[in-house]
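Render Alpha-methylacyl-CoA racemase isoform X1 in 3D.
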Amino acid sequence: MGYFFLYILFKQFKLILNSYNIVYQRNYIISINMPLKGLNVLEFSGLAPLPFVGSVLADFGANVTMVQKKEIFGVSELLNCGKKSICLNLKRPEGIQIVEKLCMDSDILLEPYRPNVMEKLKLGPDVLMAKNPRLIYARLNGYGSYGKYSQKAGHDINYVALSGLLSLYGSKDKKPIPPVNFSEFAGGSLVCIMGILMAVIERFKSGKGQVVDANITEGIAYTGSWLMASQNSFIWGQPKGQNLLDGGMHFYNTYETKDGKWMAVGALEPAFYKEFIEGLGLNIDDMPQISDFESKKEIIAKLFKEKTREEWCKIFDSKDACVTPVLELDEVDQYSHSLGRNSFIRKDNIVLPVPAPKLSVTPGILRKNQPIPTYGQHTSEILESIGYSHAEIIELLKNETVFEEPKSKI
C-alpha cells in the first residue's frame, strides 16, 4: 500500500513538473544563458532614449544599476523595469566617491548629459577609464560632444529636422510631419547600443574599453543613409509626396475602409501589383501600373470604402499582394500573425513588444513585466556590495549623500 501511494505521488509530481516545464525553461534555463549575462552596466538616468539603451541591455541579460537623483517620476520610469536603483547626491564628494567605486566593477557606463557635465563632476571618461581601463563609456545626447548646437536643448523633431530626413515626411504640398519619436530611439538608442556591443567585442581583443560617442542627429542620419543615397533616383527624385515610397503612387499607399479603418498597400513589383488589382475585382489590363497615379488612387479609394477592413483582410490574406491591415496599438497582440509568434505581451492593459531579434539559443526576456523600482530602492544593497558597512550607510543616509525608498512601484 505504501509503495502504491509513493507511485501515485510520483506520478502527480511528474505531472506538476511537466505543467511548469515551459515556465521553468523560460525563466531559469534561458536566464542563465542570456547573451549579455555577466555585463555590469551603470546608467545615469535621463530622458527616454538613454533608459531605453539600459532597458534593451537588461532584456538580453545585463545587470543594470541606475544612478538617480531624488526627483518625481516621469515617463522614462516605464523603461526602468528589471533594473536596480541607487539614489545619489552628486553635489557631495562622498557621492562622487560612490560612483568611482561602482565604476570599478562596471563594464559599461551610460551617460545622457550635455557635453562637459560629467567632466565638471570629475566623472568624465579620462578620470574613470584611468581607474578602470576596461570601462566602455557610452555617451548619448542630441547634437554631439562638440559643434554649434552641442550645448543646446532639443527633442526628436529637432534632431530629425537637422538630419535632413524630416523634409521627406508628409503629404504633397503639405508641411513636414514628424515621425512619432522615431529618431531618438532608432538613431539614438539603437545606434548607441550597436556602438556599445562593438566596443564589447573589440575589448575581447585589446582588453581595453573605449568611449562610444553617440548623438541622435548623426545617428538618425546614418540610419537614413539609403534614403540620402537614393534621393536623385526614381525612388525619391520628385518633391515630397510624389515619390515611389511616400504616398505618391496608388500601389504604395493607405486606404480607408467602410468601417473607418485602414489598409496598407505595398504592391511594388508587377507580380504583387497584379494580385492586388485582381483582389480588388479589377482587370489588370484596365489598370496598368505605371500611369495616371492620381486617378487610380481615386478609383482604389472608392473601392476600399465598399468593404470593412475585416472583409478586405479575408480577401488579401489568400493573396501575395503585399496588402495588410493598419493595426491599432491596442490590437496588434491579437492579430493572427503576432499571436502565432508571441510577438507581444500585455502589462496593465498596455501592449508591449517582446525583445527583438529572437536569438535561437540565448533569447532575451522582457523586463517590462517586472516592477519599476522606486528612486534609491536598492541603495543600501548596492552600497553593501561595494564594501560599505551598515554604519557607513546609515551616516550617508543621514547626511543626504544617498536616499532610499524601500517599495517598488508596480
